[in-house]
Amino acid sequence: MKLHLITTALLAAFSLAAHAVTPEQEKAFVESYKKALESNDAKALVAFLYTDGATKETIEFFTMMQTMEAGKKVASIELVTPSAADMAKYNKPVEMPDGKKYVMPFAPTKQLVVVIEEKNGDNTSKSTTKNPIGEKNGKLVIPVPVPAK
User: Fold this and answer.
1) Domain map of the chain by residue range?
2) What distance in Å separates the CA atoms of residue 40 and residue 144, rounded to the nearest whole number?
3) With helix as H, strand as E and coil as C, how does the chain read?
């Protein structure tokens, strides 16, 4: 019985490792996102969203959020491990204005931090966005919350 459990655990670990995203895939994800953002490619930005199980309204909201900074110059962009506080926030049900609770469809493992800096004459403004990132089917995506069950 113990041998069976150990074998099962090892197979599961190897299966997860076989599907883990590589540093090269992470770098390609960041570069693709930056290119889509700076070139105002709304279709490419929306393609980063993982929408399975999400409501139409939630998808529309996240689509709008994805494209808000489109066309602006990226001052910095990086894929980081989220803080404990951010992880807790991502894994906690959130009540939306419609009164329903929403959760992530799967646990994010990374966070995309994008800093946009705009100069307008003598004024400079900076905005930072943080998106949860997870792996689904061997691909890095931005999960869109789904209704909690």
Assistant:
1) 20-147
2) 21
3) CHHHHHHHHHHHHHHHHHCCCCHHHHHHHHHHHHHHHHCCCHHHHHHCEECCCCCHHHHHHHHHHHHCCCCCCEEEEEEECCCHHHHHHHCCCEECCCCCEEECCCCCCEEEEEEEEEEECCEEEEEEEEEEEEEECCEEEEECCEECC
pLDDT for res 19: 54
Q: What does DSSP assign to residue 105?
A: S
CATH architecture of 20-147: Roll (3.10)
Residue with tokens 């469809």: 105
Whole-prediction pTM value? 0.82
* Total residue count of the chain as it appears in this document: 149
Farthest-apart Cα atoms in the chain, separation: 72
Mean pLDDT by 10 residues, the chain (149 residues): 38 44 95 96 96 95 92 95 92 86 95 92 90 95 95
